[in-house]
Design brief:
The protein is globular and about 50 Å long. The longest helix has 19 residues. Helices cover 79% and strands 0% of the residues. With 167 residues, the protein is mostly helical. The protein is built from ten helices and no strands.
Length: 167
């Protein structure tokens, strides 16, 4: 319905901004020419998967990110790919699979700049799965551990919503 479309649009809009900055992956190859060729096939594969995500082809994007992670497990883009795999699952309302993908970002890439966002999305998934206690716990942790981030602000908003809904 319209809510899913709006969530997907918001996710894609957030995707283009968020992915462009943390690793410089989005657009970096085009800007530097030979740099992406020197880096090998991982950047091209990542960019192809990310393009599917931006186009709203979430099932295809999830498959492409899964393949990327299988083919380029050691890539410096693996944490981003793992995060966007979760995002593709989330907008398809596959909350259990999305939660597992976001949790992998936290567990496998603890130094990643994606960790606060992945924690936020674990909380969102728990909320959607009606696991309100775990959702509240992880969202509170995001707000306290990363206080001056967009993720913390969104976590506080969701916590306020949960309080208003008596969850």
């Amino acid at each position: 319905g319209p809510a899913v479309g709006a969530a997907a649009t918001a996710a894609a809009a957030g995707a283009s901004g968020a992915a462009a900055n943390p690793s410089g992956a989005a657009g970096a190859g085009a800007a530097t020419g030979g740099d992406s060729a020197a880096a090998g096939g991982d950047r091209a594969a990542y960019q192809a998967a990310f393009t599917l995500l931006k186009q709203g082809q979430y099932t295809e994007a999830a498959a492409a990110f899964r393949k990327f992670l299988a083919d380029y497990a050691g890539s410096d883009l693996a944490d981003n790919a793992q995060y966007w795999l979760g995002e593709a699952r989330y907008v398809n309302r596959e909350f259990g699979d999305a939660r597992a993908a976001f949790q992998k970002v936290i567990d496998q890439y603890p130094q990643s700049r994606k960790v606060p966002d992945a924690m936020l999305k674990v909380g969102y998934c728990d909320y959607e799965l009606k696991a309100y206690g775990p959702a509240r716990e992880v969202l509170t942790r995001v707000a306290s551990s990363y206080p001056d981030t967009p993720a913390a602000n969104l976590a506080r908003q969701r916590l306020d919503k949960m309080t208003a809904e008596s969850h």
